[in-house]
Write a structure and sequence with these properties.
Chain lengths: 358, 358
Amino acid sequence: MSGPVAADKSASEPPVTAAGRLSPPGPATIYDIAQLAGVNPSTVSRALSTPGRTSAATEARIRAAAAQLNFRANPIARALHSGRTRTLALIVADITNPVAFGIVRGAEQAASARDYSLVIAESQESGEAEAGTIHRILPGVDGLILATTRLPSQRIIELGTRTPVVLINRAVEGVPAVLPDIERGVSQLLDHLGALGHSSIAFLSGPADSWINARRSEHLMVAAVRAELELVEIGPNSPTITGGRATLRQVLAAGPTAVVAFNDLMAIGLMQAAASEGVRVPGDLSVVGFDDIFASDLITPPLTTIRAQGVSAGQRAVDHLLERLEGVEMERAPTGLLETALVIRESTGPARPGGAPR
Amino acid sequence: MSGPVAADKSASEPPVTAAGRLSPPGPATIYDIAQLAGVNPSTVSRALSTPGRTSAATEARIRAAAAQLNFRANPIARALHSGRTRTLALIVADITNPVAFGIVRGAEQAASARDYSLVIAESQESGEAEAGTIHRILPGVDGLILATTRLPSQRIIELGTRTPVVLINRAVEGVPAVLPDIERGVSQLLDHLGALGHSSIAFLSGPADSWINARRSEHLMVAAVRAELELVEIGPNSPTITGGRATLRQVLAAGPTAVVAFNDLMAIGLMQAAASEGVRVPGDLSVVGFDDIFASDLITPPLTTIRAQGVSAGQRAVDHLLERLEGVEMERAPTGLLETALVIRESTGPARPGGAPR
DNA sequence: TTGTAGGCGTTATCAG
DNA sequence: CTGATAACGCCTACAA
């Protein structure tokens, strides 16, 4: 018996054979096409998936039949054989965090441009939920993008041995990653603050276990030393508006003339708290964020921030994966760091001597 | 020959048989477990997927072997047989549009709570791209959620005959949908505006072919008549900040004391334009939006808006699909409309007699 | 160039 | 209660 369905069909009984799919109960298969074109199913497969390996005439006949039947190869059957699902997964910590949007969009665009689908999942809280989610999703995808993951390095490395993995905003030995060139944006920032006469700066740090937080802090330190500016770090803090709001008291106590927050959300929170306490921004205190999320240019005053290229990060991560999966060079160079740049808006201004009034 | 691999294994040659997977090249299969537990592969399948249909002893032995081999049933092989992938697709017009965030999050949460994966795709521009995307994704998913789709009703109906479909913010005869109860929010709004002394209102409409735009306009009309308020419609407009900004001139010409925009983005744009022209909000002009996106409460003044429950919409859409797919009643009632509610903030205030200064 | 005959991993049916 | 066997739809040696 050649194919699963062919038997029913070659049986000479017409529509009577309710089991046969003469009025197809589902999508057409290569068996349907084979029958219509009068060839063997394997020939159909060849004609459709490896063009040039059948005679032009048969191929034409097969294509015609396929078109007539509105045929689409079942990706699952194909995946079972090839082990490839043409699906990629993107795991983000928090979908509603504006920084994730750009990444999601970039990844989706790059994937669909290559006819891949994108599964997205949220790793809500800590690493345990994330591990479970990954475990669930893994067998159905060809590769994994971990954006701001909370997983310990060891697990990431293990994961990398079992499936192609690309990290965003996190560096782990031996695992490819898309990372920002924080240095450039930071040095632009310190130039900017220096030119405005600031000499005492506070950094509102984010989560203690965040790789990107450590890098931002680190680069700020180095650049501050080089620029001969004082830098104090306040934190760790929750990387949210609420987290930023809660830091005002400490900020006022420390008495800097400018504050750099771990991200825009915290910067926005700090500005809200400042406004309600009568601390003027940038009159009394300059405020800077990281990311340049949606809303950063809508608030009052518009926020000066170091922009991260979320869309590009998502695209590159996908391209990276695709290169490994298909062995093809992609146009967007997936190597090198992603540039960051200072976006100067109105939350930074000349330093107020002595810092904000307490 | 019983199973694809069993033959190699029962051949009495040890590790020599390089073809056999004695040091497994991939994940463990039920054949590996069968061998380890000394039973038939079909028994393994039964023990693992239909508990209670094997003796407790065998089941225990099989489970132990499965655990030892770190076995996970291959979802693709399972899908090939069952036709079910445990994957749902969510198509949104624009991922970076803040209204989509809530929907995506809600859908992802509801799906993963039921061990389903969520594929998301963006339908960028017009319906043609969307149709192509759906075509690509369809064979790999069990159901489809179309959020603010641009597809013509006819295609949606066709789609619905081939696969379970749930719409968000769009009603099509015979296709289940998650829709907002616009009436409630709108009547609250008109009460609010009436109480503030407004009698002349403008509605800044969105895209002409948007179902939700038509409903918002319609309900506003009805409520305005009932409340004996004048209502003029200005549009259609692009549902963006830029689109909103561009309407200021027409608004001033029409001379209303309050403006209701199709969405928050447009309301924000209008307020920006107003600010730069010296028109005070709400002093000279009250402004209201729809959706309550992230940023609406961060801008100055914070925007009064009619909140749409994006997260709930996403959850309900998934629950709806799941009910049809699994025949199980979900806890979140997927019937009935989703409540909208007026969120009063500071962009609305007492009417200025005669409207904004021109 | 085309047909034949498995195999991918799982589930379902049918015997025993 | 368990084993054998045949699908699910596609792909690919191998043979003709």
